[in-house]
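Both lines are given unchanged directly below:

***
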Amino acid sequence: MDKFKSREVATVFKNYPDAIRPRMMALRQLVLDTASESVDVVELEETLKWGEPSYVTSSGSTIRMDWKSAQPNQIALYFHCKTRLIDTFKELYGDRMLFEGNRAIVFAHSDDIPIEEVKHCIYLSLTYRRRKHLPMLGV
């Protein structure tokens, strides 16, 4: 597990319920791993936006993640709703993942996270600025 560079982000993760924290940490690690494995992602900043852990890069679109007490049995990865990201994800993985409108991939607490598919979605978001003009984001 990568160490936190931001005390504020670490605090958010620490405050997740015990049953949720490992899943949120796993999603975080998928984002960090995807960014570090890609030559197309130059720098990734981990910060808070709207109180949620967020991942920002100059090459792409921000990714946020969170668990909310209003929906205690799910966690989510959030993407900018004005992009074509979720539409593309639905086309590629609509039979393997659940989506919330045009803004999120959601996972039930008991669901297995499809790691390769999620990493692909993360990669497409982290490189969105380079591919937004391409049909199906160049996939």
